[in-house]
Amino acid sequence: MLTSSVKHVAGPLVRSMMVDATSRSIFRDYEACVKCDACVSACEEQGFNVYDWCENGNVPTTCGDVPLEQSRCVGCGQCTTVCPVASIVESDHLTDVEALLVMKDELKAQGKILVASVAPTVRVGISEPFGEDVGTNLEHQIATGLRNLGFDYVFDTCFTADLTIMEEGTELLGRLTDPDAVLPMFTSCCPGWVNSVEKLYPELIPNLSSCMSPQGMMGSMVKTAFAQKIGVAPEDIIHVSLMPCTAKKDEMARPDLLGDVNYVLTVREAARLFQNAGVDLPNLEPGLYDTPLGESTGAGVIFGASGGVMEAGLRTAYELLV
User: Fold this and answer.
1) Cα–Cα distance between 216 and 287 in angstroms, integer?
2) CA-CA distance, 123 to 130, in Å (whole number)?
3) Are 220 and 228 a contacting pair, CB within 8 Å?
4) Mean predicted lDDT score pLDDT of the chain
5) What is the largest CA-CA distance in the chain?
6) Could you tell me if 75 and 87 are in contact, meaning their C-beta atoms sit under 8 angstroms apart?
7) H/E element holding 26?
8) pTM for this predicted structure
9) 225: which DSSP letter?
10) Cβ contact 18:30 at 8 Å
11) Crossing angle, helix 158-176 and helix 214-221, to 10 degrees?
């Protein structure tokens, strides 16, 4: 929630020691703003125009000066990548996850299970903070590193990317053969895109696939089938999802996912998780993800590249058709 005073005087809005924590994805500290205009430009380039200069030109704020959650913001996080002073950052889940890992022995004594799942983009995105060449694949080092930190199981979200592809491919074929179905069909795997449709283009909601995203499916699998397999109650599993996008933090709180994913770490947070613990990620011995939620095909892997979802979906629809 907005913390501290916001008051109207004669004319412009006056802010005093203001932070905006209304968004589940992005945290804004207006006091730290250096008025560089980077967030305004970045958001304009994305076509959302969430930020603008308030009347007195003090700091860039949301259009209409509304809380971020009530604005046009879809949680894409581009503003967090360009802000030079951490005035705009991803909502912090790292602090809570680090606290859990400090208590891992106590949690284990209570019967709690720590589970991590890793999105395909993370395996290459996390290399840069460790000084590696752009695109270096640290997939297997991540598996080792997360186990060393205290996670009991480490899964690959590519597994549920494959499930998403199978579901969306099947749904597409069903729509193509149903004269009453809504076309074209758009993927629902990206929460930033789903937020865009819901906030800005609600007339396109029927065009969205009915499928959960890979993160959503992984959360469901972890708290149902996997929980049953290892004989624990879903509430005894603490599921941390490593994702490339701040909008995934918003997605985990949607009603259909609520409780399936407990924390979401962005790539930057995941890198700091290892760095704060003194883990030299690139030089770890390669490890494997746990089965069966660690197995996948190339279709799931290319989810992490632009155009990969479309390619994987069409490939799957073709295979199902012929």
Assistant:
1) 25
2) 12
3) no
4) 91
5) 70
6) no
7) strand 26-29
8) 0.91
9) I
10) yes
11) 110
Rg, C-alpha atoms of the chain: 21
Query: Strands 26-29, 88-90: parallel, antiparallel or unpaired by DSSP?
Result: antiparallel
CA distance 156 to 304: 12
3 state SS of 264: strand
Using one digit for the tens of pLDDT, what is the confidence trace for 93-125?
Answer: 999 999 999 999 999 999 999 999 999 999 999
Question: Is 154 within 8 Å of 289 (Cβ atoms)?
Answer: yes
Q: Span 206-217, mean pLDDT? A: 96
* Residue linked to tokens 């990317």: 161
* Phi-psi domain of 18 (left: phi exceeds 0; alpha: psi -120 through 50; beta: other): beta
The CA distance from 91 to 74, in Å, is 14
Q: Say if strands 88-90 and 60-62 run parallel, antiparallel, or are unpaired.
A: unpaired
What secondary structure does DSSP assign to 49-110, as a single string?
--EEE-TT-SSEEEGGG--GGGSS-----HHHHH-SSSSEEE---HHHHHHHHHTHHHHHHT
Query: How far apart are alpha carbons 75 and 165 in whole angstroms?
Result: 24
Torsion of CA 187, 126, 294, 301, to 10 degrees: 40
228 HSE (CA, 13 A, CB side): 4
- Helical segments of the chain, H only: 38-46, 78-82, 94-102, 104-109, 122-125, 139-149, 158-176, 191-200, 214-221, 227-230, 247-251, 267-276, 298-301, 308-321
- Region of 292 (left: φ > 0; alpha: ψ -120 to 50; beta: rest) is alpha
Torsion sign over Cα 216, 247, 254, 143: positive
Supply angle C-alpha 292, 294, 299, rounded to 5: 110
Using pLDDT thresholds of 50, 70 and 90, give the confidence band for residue 57: low
* Residue type at position 93: H
The token pair at 87 is 């005035």
Buried residues in 156-175 as b, exposed as e (16+ CB within 10 A) = bbbbbbbbbbbbbbebbeeb
The answer to whether the CB of 258 falls within 8 A of the CB of 235 is: no
